From TrEMBL:
Pfam families: Fn3-like, Glyco_hydro_3, Glyco_hydro_3_C. Belongs to the glycosyl hydrolase 3 family. InterPro entries: Cellulose_deg_GH3, Fn3-like, GH, Glyco_hydro_3_AS, Glyco_hydro_3_C, Glyco_hydro_3_C_sf, Glyco_hydro_3_N, Glyco_hydro_3_N_sf. Pathway: Glycan metabolism; cellulose degradation. Residues 399-558 form the PA14 domain. The keyword rRNA-binding does not apply. GO terms for molecular function: hydrolase activity. It catalyses: Hydrolysis of terminal, non-reducing beta-D-glucosyl residues with release of beta-D-glucose. It comes from Aspergillus pseudoustus. Coiled coil: none annotated. It comes from the Eukaryota. The lineage of its organism: Eukaryota, Fungi, Dikarya, Ascomycota, Pezizomycotina. Its EC number is 3.2.1.21. This is beta-glucosidase. Keywords: Carbohydrate metabolism, Cellulose degradation, Glycoprotein, Glycosidase, Hydrolase, Polysaccharide degradation.
Length: 840
């Protein structure tokens, strides 16, 4: 279709049509106006994949590692490739706006959706986001960079009031957005739920109209987070263009009345509509259909997912060079132990989740490398909060098709089966969240019957679990086993489906190998507690796992570890623990997980420990472990990526993107994170992450930027200008020589930090201002060049209300992490004249 002539279309639009364009039509889309050839825009969640327009029964997609894993790659070129693939995936789902990337910083490791953001440093986050955005938008797909700004808690964040200095906002929480505006120009911005200094962001003219549009000169569209609009006139006057999702709650007749009463000017309305129409023009390529023969799962996409996963894995310990393992040495035996051995953590929960084309299992990948006869497995313990999803050994009743059969009713179905369903479908998803996918003719208050045939793979006891968003019962062979209809347990922990579902109730069943069992759930979409908008659409979750005695299973795993050469333990957190809409209360893993790891290490000191989590965890057994590998949430290539690194097919090059503290009390936000006080004072100021630990001289467990390799690197020849004058030059060059002095090819992350030695204000000891990942064959060397500018030397002066690079002495520090002990080269230089600036 042709580009919209914005001026002429604006002149033809009626006021009712203009208002209609400024709010969503449904959960994911805006309105189309055929009269003026204005198409609808359709959004899709990211940031680790493009799910499309349905939580339930949507198309499968490529599931990348979580964003903290992407951050751990320290690789802008790789993020550009990721963005390009996600832009393509977005188009394949029929969408034009990818709700990503997330660039907020983790001031606390407990934030529930901290795994969705690149890391704790604003320069790392902003530059990786820029590469990601440029990749996505090269496909004609808009990014909605989020969550603007300082979205640092997940639980009921709409009630949170953040109080923070302008300097702290500018230097930390706004800086990633500012960098992305300068380097990538994202076409859309999504606002956060909370308020800052007493004003909700969606209605804050200083943050939107002043900062984004005037100070930074940005000309894109601002949309609310879903249900993150709290006013009519205030939000539109502040510059918040698009209310999402639909149907509207704050616009429509309310906005018409606000215009009539002169609370909103006509020119303000037109400005927002202009931004919307301009966005449609920018995404013209993604409005065209994609050739289906080139869409979907492909070797190229698989290879990229695997590379991101392997390049993100961080080798934290490797005493006596136990790693890499050698699969060619005969006679060695291996055991795969831990919750991740059977249930690898591929993603955190919430908006970031999607159904991938496949999941590479660690057990399959290990057997492929060393042969099935050399591998034994034992889970040892469970690490979940909710029983793992019932996703295997199930068939649609009466068929050989894998999955569940769903029947929708407008009234309660009777037990005789004579009530005719309004609609039917099948699914392979054991978590069925109906927020955006109900059959036509189904309205609130519907009933659904979900049926599956479970074919027992072996004789054992199984534990079946049910959570509901609504009211429901679970039956096995016609016998009621779980009742969440009459009453539901009081919630004591976060629950699935954005913390909207009930607590899980479980039942234990004896099954015999080869025998079939009919599992049926009846759900009524009638909430026992109030819901909000689309989140009130109902859902259910069916889990299933082996039921065993914990002490017996632990003992079996320990004996297995004792009997093999190399036990590999994979354990940590999963989407039960880290998810949107909730925050963790502790850094600790489940107690039984720590107990398992400690027990395995006690009988076999060569045990290889692989942890999975999106954000830092407590590691009380770290001194006992000779090896430690952190694998994040690895996406659909999790199993293959872990084994690629353990067996040396890939030399690890990941670096920690979020500092791992020794204890929660050491973290910058310890005193002001959580729900005890809804007013959150950012008393740590500009000192979060490594800035905080270094300033307090309180070393963490693992520092930002830290990570080991199977080879060694040596730095030399640091070249820095002796004097710099920003009033006469926009940029200056720094270079350093890096040599791979080991016997293996490898990649090194060269980190450049800047120290301000004569500042008039309290600044961090050093700040990351450049990084480069370089790939070096064994024995080779390379000169690594950095181009620095005013961003590298400035702080926000609250006195002058501008960025200020003060005359004085600075130092360039080349380091392998933010830990002072990992600094390898330093060289001072002088800034000969003061430099003040604003904007980008």
């Amino acid at each position: 279709m042709a580009l919209i002539d914005v001026d002429s279309v604006l002149a033809e639009l009626t006021i009712h049509e203009k208002i209609k364009l400024l709010a969503g039509k449904d959960t994911w889309s805006t309105f189309a106006l055929e009269r003026l050839n204005i198409p609808a825009l359709t959004t899709t969640d990211g940031p680790h994949g493009a799910r499309g327009t349905s939580f339930f029964n949507g198309p499968r997609g490529m599931l990348l590692p979580c964003a903290t894993a992407m951050g751990a790659t320290f690789d802008q070129d790789l993020m550009s490739a990721v963005g390009k693939m996600l832009g393509r995936e977005t188009r394949e789902k029929g969408c034009q706006v990818l709700l990503a990337p997330t660039v907020c910083l983790q001031r606390s490791p407990l934030i529930g959706r901290g795994f969705e953001a690149f890391g704790e440093d604003p320069w790392l986050s902003g530059t990786l986001a820029s590469a990601y955005v440029n990749g996505v938008q090269s496909e004609g797909v808009a990014c909605a960079i989020k969550h603007y700004a300082a979205h640092d808690q997940s639980t009921n964040s709409q009630e949170d009031s953040i109080w923070v200095s302008e300097r702290t906002l500018r230097e930390l929480h706004l800086l990633p957005f500012q960098i992305a505006m300068k380097q990538a120009n994202p076409w859309s911005v999504m606002t956060s739920y909370h308020s800052i200094n007493g004003v909700h962001i969606a209605e804050d003219p200083w943050l939107i109209n002043q900062m984004l549009r005037k100070d930074w000169g940005w000309d894109g569209l601002v949309m609310s987070d879903w249900f993150g609009t709290y006013s009519t006139a205030e939000a539109l006057n502040a510059g918040m263009d698009l209310e999402m999702p639909g149907p509207t709650r704050w616009r429509g007749q309310l906005l018409l009345w606000s215009i009539a009463s002169k609370k909103v000017k006509q020119e303000t309305l037109d400005f927002a509509v202009r931004n919307f129409l301009n966005l449609i023009n920018k995404v013209q390529p993604s409005l065209q259909p994609v050739d289906p023969s080139t869409a979907g799962d492909s070797p190229e996409k698989r290879a990229l997912c695997r590379k991101v996963a392997t390049d993100s894995i961080v080798l934290l310990k490797n005493e006596k060079s136990i790693l890499p393992l050698n699969p060619t040495i005969g006679g060695k035996t291996y055991a795969l132990i831990g919750p991740g051995a059977l249930y690898p953590a591929v993603s955190g929960g919430g908006s970031a989740d999607l159904v991938p084309y496949y999941v590479s299992q660690p057990l399959d990948a290990l057997k492929e490398l060393v042969g099935a006869g050399n591998v034994t497995t034992n889970i040892g313990c469970y690490g979940h909060l909710f029983t793992p999803l019932l996703s295997s050994s199930i068939m649609v009743p009466g068929t050989s098709e894998e999955g569940f059969y769903l029947e929708y009713f407008t009234q309660e179905p009777d037990s005789s089966g004579t009530t005719n369903p309004v609609a039917t479908t099948t699914t392979t998803q054991a978590q069925m969240y109906f927020a955006d996918n109900l059959p036509e003719g189904i309205t609130e208050g519907y009933w659904v019957r979900v049926s599956t045939t479970y074919l027992a793979p072996e004789t054992r006891m199984i534990e079946v679990g049910l959570c509901v968003l609504g009211k429901g019962r679970l039956y096995v062979d016609g016998v009621e086993k779980i009742d969440l209809f009459t009453s539901q347990p009081k919630k004591t922990i976060q629950t699935p489906m954005f913390d909207q579902a009930s607590m899980e109730v479980t039942t234990v069943i004896d099954v015999k190998e080869g025998q079939k069992y009919e599992i049926v759930v009846i759900l009524h979409n009638e909430r026992l507690t109030a819901g909000v908008g689309a989140l009130n659409a109902g859902g259910l979750r069916i889990g299933c796992c082996e039921h065993f005695d914990p002490a017996t299973k632990l003992s079996e795993a320990v004996e297995l570890a004792r009997s093999v050469d190399y036990p590999i333990v994979i354990a940590g957190l999963n989407a039960d623990w880290e998810s949107e809409g909730l925050d963790r209360k502790s850094l600790a893993l489940a107690p039984q997980v720590d107990q398992l790891i400690e027990a395995v290490l006690s009988v076999n000191p060569n045990a290889i420990i692989v942890t999975q989590a999106g954000c830092p965890i407590a590691i009380p057994w770290v001194e006992s472990s000779k090896t430690l590998v952190h694998a994040w949430y690895g996406g659909q290539e999790t199993g293959a990526a872990i084994m690629d690194v353990l067996f040396g097919k890939v030399n690890p090059s990941g670096r920690i993107s979020v500092t791992f503290p020794k204890r929660l009390e050491d973290t910058p936000g310890f005193l002001s994170f959580g729900k005890q006080d809804k007013m959150l004072h950012y008393g740590e100021g500009v000192f979060i992450g490594y800035r905080y630990y270094e300033k307090l001289r309180n070393p963490p467990l693992f520092s930002f930027g830290y990570g080991l390799s199977y080879t060694t690197f040596v730095y030399s020849d640091l070249n820095v200008p002796k004097e710099i004058n920003l009033t006469k030059q926009d940029t200056f060059q720094v270079s350093v020589k890096v040599q791979n002095t080991g016997s293996r090819d490898g990649a090194e992350v060269v980190q450049l930090y800047v120290l301000d030695l004569t500042s008039s204000v309290q600044r961090p000891v050093k700040e990351l201002k450049g990084y480069r990942k370089v790939h070096l064959p064994a024995g080779s060397s390379v000169d690594v060049a950095f181009t620095l500018d005013k961003y590298a030397l400035s702080f926000w002066s609250q006195e002058q209300e501008k960025w200020l690079a003060e005359k004085g002495t600075f130092e360039i520090c080349i380091a392998t992490s933010a830990d002072p002990n990992d600094e390898v080269l330093r060289q001072p230089f002088d800034l000969v004249a003061e430099y003040l600036w604003s904007g980008l």
